[in-house]
Specification:
Elements (H helix, E strand, L loop, with lengths): L12 H10 L2 H6 L9 H14 L2 H21 L3 H11 L5 E4 L16 E3 L6 E11 L7 E7 L9 E7 L5 E5 L11 E11 L3 E2 L5 H36 L2 E2 L2 E2 L4 H31 L2 H25 L10 H8 L9 H10 L1 H6 L4
Parallel strand pairs: 1-4
Antiparallel strand pairs: 2-3, 3-7, 4-5, 5-8, 6-7, 9-10
The structure holds flavin-adenine dinucleotide.
Flavin-adenine dinucleotide (FAD) binds next to strand 1, strand 3 and helix 10.
């Protein structure tokens, strides 16, 4: 039986989300009573179709919303306000941002973040100060999930998520200064004594990093699924192009060294696809951090290799507006966003025995 249509139309991320909701795809993705888990194969299908239709920035924003923000909110929303925003997101009417990367510290060192939340700021309110940078959907979302510290120090339990309306007094949103990622709404957020009711706190105080660690695993799974779709499209397009360009009467596609470089790309991509398939359930159902780190590391390295090779194989035309060289620059985010390759390799290094003993004997 053919797959039923997902309801995915051309347009910005908000329009895509509303199409996915209207067709019942979001309900199918999270189940009738979402509790923080999703169907990984359906998520992959959505991202693959979105990659074929949309700009990189649009797919990026969709990925963050579907794989990280919505499941995190579904697990942590426990007040009327946060539950209302979750419902709106599930109905396709609320685009949200997730703001973890802090202005005061490197994104690779979340425990050093400087944004503070005072959880007992008189009258049962809370007070938020600080800033976040490189936030996807900062310019287009109505609310952002903001990771803040309610206590000083690096302890795992010092952090809490706050759902922040981006129009609240004291919130400033500034566009990121980049020509890349059209449609991602990338921006920086500044919080200057932002007062909110306690209802905007997400989940129990102190669970911020634990929730982040759980849900970033599925973002990494989603990112690897998108990586396979994007690289497959680029390798196929490069091979097709080389079949029509002859050097001394022989199509470049038939040159022994070019053939091997394309084959090398296809083999690496097959390895990424196989690891994705092998680890999808463990990550989606159990939030397996080691499996997600391994997949993210392989994904970052694979994308970098394939985009570099294919961009070179497309010669000068790769520099055309909208050409593969621009995509190569954007695709570098696979090795940085959601955890730099070195950071996820550190996670794998800490659990080397577990990774090795998990291999087929
Ligand atoms: C397009 C885009 C979208 C983004 N969207 C979001 C978003 O929606 N929400 C959000 O919170 N953040 C977002 N980010 C930020 C992203 O999560 C961070 O860029 C990332 O965590 C890395 O942090 P950093 O940029 O501060 O780099 P740094 O932490 O300063 O690291 C710089 C480089 O140093 C190296 N490095 C870092 N740590 C180690 C280590 N342990 N060992 C060896 N080398 C290391 C790596 O090469 C790394 O790339 C986005 C970024 C981009 C580019």
């Amino acid at each position: 039986m053919p797959d039923r249509p997902l309801g995915l139309h051309d347009g910005d991320t908000a329009a895509i989300l509303s199409g996915l909701a209207a067709s019942g795809t979001l309900t199918e993705l999270y189940g009738k009573e979402p509790a923080g888990r999703l169907d990984p194969l359906l998520l992959r299908r959505i991202l693959t179709e979105a990659d074929a239709h949309g700009a990189t920035g649009t797919v990026l924003a969709l990925l963050v919303q579907l794989a990280n923000v919505t499941p995190l909110l579904a697990e942590a929303a426990d007040s009327p306000v946060t539950s209302r925003i979750l419902r709106a997101a599930l109905d396709g009417g609320e685009l949200l941002a997730l703001a973890a990367t802090d202005t005061a510290s490197p994104g690779s060192d979340l425990a050093a973040l400087g944004t503070t939340v005072d959880l007992s700021h008189g009258d049962g309110g809370i007070l938020l100060d600080g800033g976040k940078r490189w936030v996807t959907s900062a310019l287009t979302a109505g609310h952002a999930l903001v990771l803040a510290r309610h206590r000083s120090g690096r302890h795992f339990t010092s952090f809490t998520w706050v759902l922040v309306p981006l129009t609240a007094p004291g919130v400033t949103v500034r566009a990121a200064d980049t020509d890349l990622f059209d449609g991602a709404g990338l921006g920086h957020l500044h919080f200057d004594s932002v007062r909110l009711s306690r209802e905007y706190v997400l989940g129990r105080p102190g669970r911020g990093l634990a929730l982040f660690a759980r849900h970033v695993t599925v973002e990494r799974l989603a990112s690897a699924a998108w990586a396979v779709a994007l690289c497959r499209r680029v390798v196929a397009g490069t091979a097709q192009r080389l079949a029509t360009r002859s050097v001394e009467g022989v199509p470049l596609r038939r040159s022994p060294s070019v053939r091997q470089r394309l084959a090398d790309c296809a083999v690496r991509l097959s390895a990424l696809d196989a690891l994705w398939t092998q680890s999808a359930d463990r990550i989606a159902q159990h939030h397996d951090a080691t499996a997600a780190a391994s997949l993210k590391a392989l994904s970052g390295m694979t994308v970098e290799h394939i985009l570099t090779e294919c961009a070179r194989l497309q010669g000068a035309d790769g520099f055309d507006r909208g050409g593969v060289q621009r995509l190569r620059a954007e695709a570098a985010v696979f090795g940085i966003g959601g955890g730099a390759t070195e950071v996820v390799l550190d996670t794998v290094a800490e659990r080397l025995d577990q990774v090795l003993s998990g291999l087929t004997p």
